[in-house]
Write a structure and sequence with these properties.
alpha+beta, elongated, 2 helices, Translation Initiation Factor IF3
Amino acid sequence: MFDLGCLSVNSANYISEEFSTLFKDKAKVYCETADFLIALKKDQRVEFRKEVFKKVQAAKWTQVHPITYSHHLLFEVKNEKYGE
């Protein structure tokens, strides 16, 4: 089980309760945003963040503050099965 993770724009799609089982409870995970993808319009970049937060909420993760980098989001994993 991982203590720390870093998700790319492409791998952010995997955020879920099932994905959480790869991490220790309270592990930190950085998630890259789409802020610097020039192919996306500004509203699409905002929509990407919204979709990430929907996945995080469903997985019961929490956002960690302060964030070190503005182009990444930092979350704490909730793994209810950790230790079983």
